[in-house]
């Protein structure tokens, strides 16, 4: 990663601030679910299918955390700081 947030800060200080990370997670999530849908939905008990499901949920969870921080927590903190 080449952005300043990803190179220097710890996880909680960079989450929600790096657009490149959010773009990568979006692409990985979509690609993962498309591959699962077209290749493995008929046999959801196979190892490959379970691995793709777990990866998809991990990508979606991390993307949700990024978006939550970016659009809810960080603006809330900024408004709170201006009010003081």
Plain-language structure description:
This protein has four helices and no strands. The longest helix is centred in the C-terminal third of the chain and has 37 residues, at 47-83. The mean pLDDT is 88. With 84 residues, the protein is mostly helical. The protein has helices at 4-8, 11-14, 19-39, 47-83.
Strands, count? 0
SS-derived structural category: mainly alpha
CA-atom Rg in angstroms: 17 Å
**Helix-strand pattern, N to C?**
HHHH
Major sheet size, sense and barrel closure: none
| Helical percentage | over 70%
Indicate the proportion of strand residues.
under 5%
User: What kind of assembly state do the chains in view correspond to?
Assistant: single chain
The shape is elongated
Unreliable stretches covering 5 or more consecutive residues: none
User: First CA to last CA: what distance?
Assistant: 35 Å
Number of helices: 4
Average predicted local confidence, pLDDT: 88
């Amino acid at each position: 990663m080449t952005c300043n947030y990803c190179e220097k800060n710890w996880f909680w200080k960079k989450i929600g601030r790096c657009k490149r990370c959010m773009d990568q997670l979006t692409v990985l999530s979509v690609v993962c679910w498309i591959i699962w849908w077209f290749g493995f939905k008929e046999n959801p008990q196979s190892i490959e299918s379970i691995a793709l499901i777990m990866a998809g949920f991990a990508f979606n969870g991390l993307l949700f955390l990024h978006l939550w921080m970016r659009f809810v927590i960080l603006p809330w903190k900024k408004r709170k700081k201006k009010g003081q």
